[in-house]
Amino acid sequence: MDYGRDINVIRYDGNLKKVQETKGYYDPLQYPVLFPFGTHGWDINTTNCNGRRVSCRAYYSYMLQIRPNDQSMLLNAGQLLQQYVVDNYVKIESGRLRWIKEHQSDIRSELYQGLHDALHVGETNAENIGKRTILPSSFIGSRRDMTQRYEDGMAIVLNGAKPDIFLTMTCNPSWSEITSELLPFQTPQDRPDLITRIFSSKFEKLKDDVINKGVLGKVKSYMYVTEFQKRGLPHVHMLLVLESNDKLRDPKDYDSMVRAEIPKLECEPQLHEAVVRHMIHGPCGIINRKFPCMKDGHCKKRYPKQFLDETRQGTDSYPEYRRRFDESVSLGKDRSVDNRWVVPNNDVESNLTNMLLKDLNELLNLHGKKIDDYDLPSLPPNTIDRGAVPSIIQEELAIDIPNEDIESIAKLNNDQMIAFNTIMNVIVQKHSGVFFGDGPGGTCKTFLYRTLMASLRSRGEIVLATASSGIAATLLPGGRTAHSRFKIPIDIQPSSICGIEKQKDLENLIRVAAAIIWDEAPMTNKNCLEALDRSLQDICSNNAPFDGKVLIMGGGGISSSSSCCKKRY
Fold first, then answer.
1. Is residue 144 included in any domain, yes or no?
2. Do 404 and 369 share a structural domain?
3. Of the N and C termini of the chain, which has fewer Cβ atoms inside 10 Å?
4. Does residue 358 share a domain with residue 335?
């Protein structure tokens, strides 16, 4: 039988039993806290009151519904709710893939495209064309789906006109509709179900205003994409093509839609507060030469702009917005700003197509990928900042350091202090070393890891915090699973290597990292550790274990992984 996922349960006799996610007892086994009485979850035979089978998606939508006077255990589960939602969405997607696989035994992928090319070169035997597994365009996220969406967008532009407006709508977790529905002690991040529902409702209202009511002009055609930020909040990028009578043609049209000035406090207090808080560039220049926009002593965004009494057409065909000389606004005791530092409310200075590609590329970068990895147009060279610090490194440097972790050095016991000083001395002296913290649960291994990370990050060093499981990774600030961070193959073999490519951002991140922490290392296959060892030696041309990096592994109990590490390193 084909098991979609490797889920094991230890039987009373000590043997392992594989459990399918399509069985009703999967949920109570995987989430005993949420289902303490062993309540069965969805399985393929689940039916409703009319005897009709219930789909996996319908069942979990039912489970996540908000009901009056119902104290749902799920909706009070915090981060466990997030894991439950992700886990069961994967179950839904797995079911779709399983259905596709079971209903295409006689279908060839080249029947979708390329068959005429094969016939043209003389191939007449269908058995020699294509491959058996087809992921159709109806499967969201598949290559055919992405290609079809891209081609639809390009067809709109080619048959209509270039987009006139690039509109972005972001989710605000402080919306009253969200905060009023939160349960006690909850944050918006604890309720992804609530956020997505409210955002979807507001976006439908925005579409009605823009598309049907024409608040920005009569819309000829439009397209949009919904994305999710790293912290889980959705946002939408929308391209609008206006009818010829409503296109932006002169400075007055620009001024009617785009503003680059600080609103008067007495006239527009709410807008004034929003612009001052969110739409002020910098500080950069002489005030702060280390600001990300600074290059060769100058601001790449050309701030501060010059004062202008009226909007005019720039030399590069882009408008230069009106920025009248006015009194400065104080942002604190050390800084005041004027209209020269205001970021326009709607960014129409850049080429809209390039902006869309840049946004897509930045989103992909969050997952360690680039736009070149997909069937999408490449970024034009003039939109790529070659000298910029890779975003993957910026994210590591921007990880928040909890105050309690910084102050925890004084709370270390004698054994922990010896381990802390030993590891820190090796790192400070730029030596290599592999350390293994072996101890049962409750011996404060995670406390030691967090103290090490806080101490190193407070010095500006980068520490890669990983763990073998997602739950363990959440206990480490900035933590990720080892498979995700190092691109370890899922189907690991004794000769496997990680998917770390040379001259890529991930390789640069590993090069500058001062240390690597791998919690719960005994839980992983020893081939994973050996694959990482081979990969680091290869990309850095260093025969020392793990490229001479300081590697700190830990976990309770002895396994083949821990035994291998102790013997070899």
1. no
2. no
3. N
4. no
The total of other beta-carbon atoms located within 10 Å of residue 370's CB is 16
Q: Total domain count for the chain?
A: 4
| pTM for the predicted model, two decimal places | 0.48
How far is residue 515's CA from residue 521's CA, in Å, rounded to a whole number? 15
Task: Give Cβ neighbours of residue 506 (< 8 Å, ≥ 6 apart).
Answer: 368, 392, 487, 500
Identify the burial level of 242 via C-beta atoms within 10 angstroms of its C-beta, where 0-12 means exposed, 13-18 middle and 19 or more buried.
buried
Residue scoring higher pLDDT (558 or 42): 42
Q: Which tokens belong to 103? A: 């209903």
Predicted confidence band of residue 18 (pLDDT cuts 50, 70, 90): confident
| Integer CA distances (angstroms), 67 to 75, 125, 269, 417, in order | 11, 58, 38, 51
Contact between residue 465 and residue 453 where contact means Cβ atoms under 8 Å apart: yes
Q: Considering 102, 131, 164, which residue would you say is the last residue of a domain?
A: 102
Q: What is the predicted pLDDT for the residue at 204? A: 93
Calpha distance 374→287 (Å, rounded): 41
Beta bridge partners of 16: 10
Round to whole Å and give the CA distance between 536 and 499: 11
- Shared-domain flag, residues 275 and 380: no
Whether 410 and 514 map to the same domain: the answer is yes
> In which domain, by residue range, is 19 found?
8-102
- 110 three-state secondary structure: helix
Does some domain include residue 121? no
